[in-house]
Design brief:
81 residues, alpha+beta, four-stranded antiparallel sheet, 25% helix
């Protein structure tokens, strides 16, 4: 992914880590997804501009769904391949 498509947070963090760590952080962040309870749409934390690296536990975030537009508590969960 090019630097221009990363969020400000991702660019700042990646300025201080090695390329190998940056790749691991991106892969791990892409595995964490927010799931809408209304339409079952899922979007990765990476695509939202965030980083979630070496994390555990499932939390919830109050936000608007990109797909259905409803505000709800979306479940943050790691997708296991």
């Amino acid at each position: 992914m090019t630097d221009s498509t990363r969020s400000l947070t991702q660019r700042v963090i990646f300025a201080f880590v090695s390329p190998a760590t940056a790749a691991a952080m991106e892969a791990d962040s892409r595995a964490w997804k927010l799931h809408c309870p209304h339409c079952a749409h899922a979007v990765s934390i990476w695509d939202l501009g965030g980083i979630r690296y070496k994390a555990y536990g499932n939390s919830r975030m109050l936000r608007r769904c990109r797909n259905c537009g409803r505000i709800s508590w979306q479940r943050l969960q790691r997708d296991h391949d």
